[in-house]
Recover the amino acids of this structure.
């Protein structure tokens, strides 16, 4: 397996700094690091980004996410390993990632569930994490970045 090219954000080096700044801002929103890592991992799974699933699993592990939760985040609805707060974040992540699948993908019900656990700054952090992850997934999948190549 071979990538088509280097990640575009590495080719156009002026792009990487602003992306890293957004990720740095995400960390200031007051959301537990494990939740952000679970969101990143679930979005990457949906998009089939092998590089981000691989990297996200490693980063989540370092953030303290257990092997049990890493193995079952793909089926979070059917497992007892996630809190209601984490479930709300994962549901928001799925809805915001699958926008093309249905009109009004992020329903008021999904948003309100997340808003019942997270304040505005925290929601901003989660939504930015979803957006940046989706962007990286699209860059990596389009250019066929190889899982583990950045390690």
């Amino acid at each position: 397996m071979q990538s088509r090219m280097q990640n575009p954000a590495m080719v156009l080096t002026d792009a990487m700094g602003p992306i890293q700044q957004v990720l740095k801002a995400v960390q200031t929103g007051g959301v537990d690091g494990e939740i952000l890592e679970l969101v990143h991992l679930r979005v990457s799974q949906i998009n089939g980004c092998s590089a981000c699933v691989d990297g996200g699993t490693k980063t989540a592990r370092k953030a303290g996410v257990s092997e049990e939760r890493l193995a079952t985040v793909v089926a979070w609805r059917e497992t007892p390993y996630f809190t209601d707060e984490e479930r709300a974040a994962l549901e928001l992540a799925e809805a915001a990632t699958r926008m093309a699948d249905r009109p009004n993908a992020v329903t008021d019900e999904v948003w309100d569930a997340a808003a019942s656990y997270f304040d505005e700054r925290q929601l901003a952090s989660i939504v930015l994490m979803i957006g940046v992850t989706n962007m990286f997934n699209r860059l990596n999948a389009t250019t066929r970045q190889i899982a583990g190549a950045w390690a």
Summary: Residues 120-142 form the longest helix (23 residues). The helical segments are 8-11, 16-26, 33-47, 50-62, 67-72, 84-97, 108-115, 120-142. DSSP finds eight helices and no strands in the chain. The chain has a mean pLDDT of 95.
